[in-house]
Fold these 2 entries.
Entry 1:
Amino acid sequence: ANNWQGLIQTYRPYLPVSENTPVVTLLEGNTPLIPARAIAAKIGRGVKVYVKYDGLNPTGSFKDRGMTMAISKAKEEGATAVICASTGNTSAAAAAYAKRAGMKAFVVIPDGYVALGKLAQALLYGAEVIAVDGNFDDALNIVRQLSENYPVTLVNSVNPYRLQGQKTAAFEIVDVLGNAPDWLCIPVGNAGNISAYWMGFCEYHTSGKSSRLPKMMGFQAAGAAPLVSGEPIANPDTLATAIRIGNPANWQKAVAVKESSGGEFNPVTDGEILDAYRFLASEEGVFCEPASAASVAGLFKVKDRVPDNASVVCVLTGNGLKDPTSAVDHSLNELKQGIPLNLEKVAGIMGF
Ligand code: F0G
């Protein structure tokens, strides 16, 4: 749309807002659904693949969808401060939207396990960032207690308004495709987003906007895959720090999504995540952060089970620039360095 007003304005009838809700927005949403022909070619059999590039949101991740709702509702309820635990993206989004609302943001992060782009964002947006000696699950525990004991509103995905905002990504997909895809592939950490997408697909289906519901395929990093094993993991580990989570807060919801959609949870190794991360950049021209590439790594893993001619959407949750360290670590060896400033030499490297 030429005059995009943000997702609350666009999807107002589907959201728990009224005229009294002060809309706090950075004009998030309306992200591109990009045809992914190189991915589709690896599957063949007429399968159509799209990536939902939510890394193009204002703070660079899908969290903006949840945060425009959570912060608008917190403001409506008179909150003056918000708090979240985060592997990075939630903290950046909370910080930005809280700032626009004139609220204070506190964020608690696992020390040493947040990608530098996200950390810098949260600090620059003016949040109070507290790095604790513990993982995300520990951080979520402490912010839950803080929000119960002090006048700060919790804006993690246990806040129901977060999922309300995030469900709009499913609306956008159906609005573009004219129906739901046959499969949705999505990275899963705290399991809020998969639950939100399912809610969105179900609501649109109920209102007659789509004739089918997708099979929800959730992918977790192999070292942080409690929904695959069925057991919380005390020490989750993966280079995809965004989804380095051992005990997802939305566990029950995610299991219900799997069951009602006929979906699955499958693990992808860090090696598979990195291969997909590079493939997306080098073959599709789409740069996402490692955790996001788990959706494509997962699709590659189960590709032989995709029905002929099916449509598949892979969700790319965050922008590649969020995690410059991973980007540099996995690209710098390609740099032609130490080259003299000489026409023939440079042309020679160019292959002329
Ligand atoms: N992808 C990215 C880039 C994320 O940042 C997250 C979660 C997920 C996927 C998983 O989504 O938790 O709804 O299953 N990041 C949270 C954060 C935990 O703090 O930024 P989920």
Entry 2:
Amino acid sequence: KSKADKKGQYLFYNNLISVQIMRKMEIQHELARALERGELSVHYQPQMSMREEKLVGVEALARWFHPSLGNVFPDEFISVAEESGMIHDLDLFVFRRACEDLYALSSNGEGALKLSVNISPVQLTEPEFFCDLVDICTSVGIAPERITLEITENVFIHGFDIVKPLFAKLRQQGFGLSLDDFGTGYSSLSYINSLPLTEIKIDRSFINKFLDFYQSDMLVRMIVGIGRLCGLVVVAEGVETKSQLDKLLNYDCDLVQGYYFDRPLTIEQLSEKVELCKE
Ligand code: C2E
Ligand code: MG
Ligand code: MG
Ligand code: MG
């Protein structure tokens, strides 16, 4: 390549990187104000029980609508929030709002919808965070037993010995504990029975492929098998087709979540759905 070509390439990548950095800075700057301005909201994606074929719970997912940037999605803003420390307020906002919404939908009785909330691994080592969760449950009046905290495998960057007592403490309070995006990161099979987990959630990337690729298929089958043998609830996320659903039913998976049933819904849409299910 000529010298000019190389220089052009260099400038191209250099500009690309600047654009990415500027976008990130903008996100960070705007996110700091998003909470106060009421730009953040929470959507709820239904989780269906495979065997009873009914709605049993929802996963709360953060949503951000910015007046000029439009919809910004969690895959972009969660990592920014984690790096800048804003994740603390963000996760607590989502947790509180979700508890309030679910409590309003139905109080704690028999058959009440379960709630899953994502908790950043960054949070888990913050001592006051634990108390904050319990305080919110008490003030809203929702039982921690109704709530499952979803934590990704990335939590193990903290090291197993740090994570284990934190998990134990959360379990003692009654929260369910789910290992989210299972199979993608730091997971080790030994974690499954040496941690007080209640649930594992098979990552969407496996569900995407398992009809077409033998390896993914075997992996999904194995994860469901091991999870069930260890007495855990096994959830499949990202289910988009009937064939995927049928196969998961065959493997005896407990819960499914995905566009095949519903996209994440506003609380109003969820209420309507719950009403329809009652009839
Ligand atoms: P996740 O916890 O694994 O959530 C599942 C993601 O898959 C959600 O993306 C959901 O909208 C999407 N999804 C569900 N079903 C389907 C499907 O059938 N097909 C496809 N293609 N996608 C599906 P979302 O809402 O964009 O969230 C992305 C990630 O951001 C979440 O992954 C979670 O790790 C994180 N996140 C979202 N809200 C929060 C929050 O309040 N706090 C924290 N710490 N993390 C959050
Ligand atoms: Mg999740
Ligand atoms: Mg997941
Ligand atoms: Mg994920």
